[in-house]
Design a protein that fits this description.
single chain, about 400 residues, alpha+beta, Arp2/3 complex 21 kDa subunit ARPC3, Beta-Lactamase, 3 domains, five-stranded antiparallel sheet, four-stranded antiparallel sheet
Length: about 400
């Protein structure tokens, strides 16, 4: 009985997003009728345990086990009909329990909680009616509980009303889901496009400034060029550090002049990163990569490069380290819906910025099944926006 109940829950019928019609309750109620109260409750708990796999929380196990316990107690002690007992359970205890767990523990939006509560109540009552009818047809000679023809007829009449209603609910819910899904996706596409435009404007403003410096890098003494770097860094709060390096990655000018250890930045030689080869080849400014900053507080920073050319040949580059606070503010203000989630990813799928819970910066995105749009915004950066 438990195995068939687990199979019934596994073969659940999806109605809307994560709302499923479960068939395991039929076998839990059959176990109650064939084996008695406590074996029935145990069977119900085991059968309902599959909901943890479906919904990733244990509260449905409590609700469904309590349903069998209350129905069994009302049938044996109050001699109440099974369907009536189940209906009474859902009205008095089941619906309040669903609201308590989903609204206050799981923090599900109020409108969604009532959809889930009604679905679970209808699911439970329908499963109870089917179980009672199956038991009546199979257990005519067993007489586990005294049954009357009027009970069978009333159950059949209610079933003929409930089953078409469930069918209509399933079909209409799927149509509604497709409509809502389409609207959500269109909204996400529009939002991602608008955000892309804002991002590109932000990057272009930094690129233009760095490219202008790269263009004049060989036309003035190092001290004068260093003053230009200092002016730009102080004028643009997005720039953490900016410098000029020769073709061997030796620092010729830098702002700030002194590093966090009190040493001069000018004269330092840095190992050549793989993206420098791409910069040599393209001869165009580029957003090289997003990395975790090691100076001050650990946070993602972007590396922006512009090549310095001498008679058309690569002669070093200007590199700027950009903080992403302005980008994060754009994302927060751009997401108007409080249930919308945004994530900015680098080229390796690592999280740069996100308001999704459970994410670690510069680690792979922990994905869940949600309506989502993934949109390229500029080099090496993708923007993912979704709804809970």
């Amino acid at each position: 009985m438990v195995l068939t109940g687990l199979a019934g829950n596994h073969l659940s019928y999806p109605i809307f997003l994560n709302i499923d019609f479960l068939f395991g309750g039929i076998f839990a109620m059959l176990a109650l009728q064939f084996f008695g109260l406590w074996p029935g409750v145990l069977a119900a708990a085991l059968i309902a345990s599959y909901t943890f796999v479906l919904w990733k929380h244990p509260y449905a196990i409590v609700i469904m086990s309590a349903e069998v316990a209350v129905v069994g107690a009302l049938m044996t002690r109050r001699k109440m009909g099974m369907v009536l007992a189940d209906t009474l359970y859902w009205v008095v205890a089941g619906l309040p329990l669903v609201y308590l767990f989903y609204r206050f523990v799981l923090k599900v939006p109020d409108s969604s909680v009532w959809i889930i509560a009604v679905k679970q109540a209808v699911n439970g009552i329908a499963a109870t009616m089917l179980a009672r009818l199956i038991y009546s047809s199979l257990g005519v000679g067993l007489q586990c509980w005294q049954r009357s023809m009027s009970e069978v007829m009333s159950n059949l009449l209610v079933l003929f009303v409930v089953l078409p209603s469930l069918l209509i609910l399933g079909v209409s819910s799927r149509e509604d889901f497709e409509h809502v899904d389409g609207d959500l996706r269109q909204g996400l596409i529009e939002h991602a496009s608008n955000t892309k435009a804002l991002f590109q404007h932000w990057v272009k403003a930094r690129k233009d400034a760095v490219l202008e410096l790269a263009t004049v890098a060989n036309t003035m003494p190092a001290a004068q060029f260093n003053e230009r770097l200092e002016l730009l860094r102080k004028a643009d709060a997005n720039i953490l550090r900016i410098g000029r390096r020769d073709k061997d990655s030796v620092v010729l000018a830098y702002s700030p002049l002194i590093d966090e250890s009190g040493n001069r930045n000018v004269g330092k030689k840095f190992p050549e990163r793989p993206y420098i080869a791409s910069l040599r080849q393209s001869g165009q400014p580029m957003l090289a990569e997003v990395v975790m900053g090691r100076i001050d507080k650990p946070e993602p920073v972007a590396i922006l490069l512009a090549p310095v050319l001498k008679q058309g040949q690569f002669d070093g580059y200007v590199n700027a380290v950009l903080k992403l606070d302005a980008i994060q503010d754009m994302l927060k203000h751009g997401v108007q819906d409080r249930y919308a989630l945004f994530t900015l990813l680098d080229q390796n799928g690592n999280v740069v910025l996100s308001n999704r819970p459970g994410q670690t910066m510069m680690k792979p995105l922990q994905r869940e099944k949600r309506v989502a749009i993934l949109h390229p915004v500029f080099e090496h950066v993708l923007y993912r926006v979704e709804f809970e």
